[in-house]
Specification:
The protein is an alpha/beta fold and 158 residues long. Helix content is 45%, strand content 15%. α2 runs parallel beside α4.
C-alpha cells in the first residue's frame, strides 16, 4: 500500500505543478494584454502629416480677401501663396471681420478636383472651414478669406 500512495503523491504533485504553471501562464498573458490596452489608451496616436501640394504651378487662380483688417498681413500671405505656385492677382477688403479663415471652392469638384482640399492643407485650415459655392461666370477657382486666425496661417505657410 505504501507504493500506491507514493505513486498518487507523485501524480498529484505533477498535476499541481502543471496547474500552477498553467495559472502563471494565464496570469502573465492577461497582464500583457492589460499592458497593451493601457499603452494604446495612454499614448496618443500620431497622425501622418499629409504633404500640402498644389496640382500644377500657377494652375490655381485664387481671389484673396482681407477679413482680418490687416492688409499688410494679407499681402504677406499673398506673397507666400505666389511662392507656392498659386496665382493671386489681387487682394480685396471684405468689409467684415471674420473670426476664422475660409476657403470657398468656386468651381467645384467636377471642373478642378482637389483645389479646395489643396488650399486648405497649404493654409492649415480645417475641413469645416471649406465651403463649396458655385457662381456662374466667376473666373477664379477659389476664394480665400483671411480671418483673425491669420497667425496660424502665416506659421503654416513658412
Amino acid at each position: 500500500m505504501a507504493k500506491t500512495s507514493k505513486k498518487k503523491d507523485k501524480t498529484s504533485s505533477f498535476k499541481n505543478l502543471i496547474t500552477r504553471l498553467f495559472d502563471w501562464f494565464v496570469i502573465c498573458t492577461l497582464g500583457l494584454i492589460a499592458v497593451f490596452i493601457l499603452v494604446g489608451y495612454l499614448l496618443p496616436v500620431k497622425e501622418k502629416e499629409v504633404e500640402a501640394r498644389v496640382p500644377d504651378r500657377n494652375s490655381i487662380l485664387v481671389e484673396l480677401f482681407d477679413g482680418c483688417g490687416r492688409k499688410d498681413v494679407v499681402q504677406d500671405i499673398r506673397i507666400h501663396l505666389i511662392e507656392k505656385g498659386i496665382d493671386v492677382p489681387q487682394v480685396s477688403r471684405t468689409g467684415y471681420t471674420y473670426p476664422v479663415s475660409l476657403v470657398v471652392d468656386r468651381i467645384g469638384a467636377k471642373a478642378n478636383p482637389g483645389v479646395a482640399d489643396s488650399l486648405s492643407r497649404i493654409l492649415g485650415v480645417s475641413e469645416d472651414q471649406v465651403v463649396l459655392q458655385r457662381i456662374e461666370g466667376l473666373q477664379v477657382d477659389a476664394t480665400i478669406v483671411i480671418g483673425l486666425d491669420y497667425p496660424k496661417i502665416i506659421e503654416k505657410l513658412k
